[in-house]
Amino acid sequence: MAPLTGGSSPKPVQQYLDESPQELQELFAELDEVLLSHDDVRMEPQLHYYAYRRIKNVATVRVQPRNRMLVVNLKLDPESVELQEGFSRDVRGLGCLGIRDGVEVRIRSHEDLARAGDLIQRSVSAG
């Protein structure tokens, strides 16, 4: 029996971003600006996501071009957040990339980014 060959390697997050619709790229640029506007937060590209960190990750961002959204994981206690169906959810125990337990926020528009502003601020401040 012939050995199985590994298929193509996974696409890096930057490739997903580069292949995304223009409006999603612009939304990412705005989110990136918001996250990097905080003192000593830096962005470190990983294979599957962008990590925004101080000493530890304060946010991770995955690009989902097919769904036309950015999935942001924030280092927040889900008990302290008013979760909203389709916008935010508790990801404790789900094994999300870069942040073990926290809150996932789905950003599909400039309005979603504005709604997420307070949560982003809280996550960065706690980090």
Provide tags for this entry.
127 residues; alpha+beta; 6-stranded antiparallel β-sheet; 6 strands; 30% helix; 24% strand; globular; disordered N terminus
Describe the structure.
α2 (22-36) runs parallel beside α3 (110-126). Helix content is 30%, strand content 24%. Mean pLDDT is 90; it is low at 1-5. The protein starts with 12 loop residues before the first helix and ends with a helix. By secondary structure, the chain is of the alpha+beta class. It contains three helices and six strands. A six-stranded antiparallel β-sheet has the order 1-2-3-4-6-5.
Give the quaternary arrangement of the chains: single chain
**Largest sheet, described in full?**
6 strands, antiparallel
In which order are the strands of the major sheet placed?
1-2-3-4-6-5
Extract low-pLDDT stretches: 1-5
Rg value: 15 Å
Q: Total strand count, please?
A: 6
Helices and strands: which structural class? alpha+beta
Which whole number gives the mean pLDDT?
A: 90
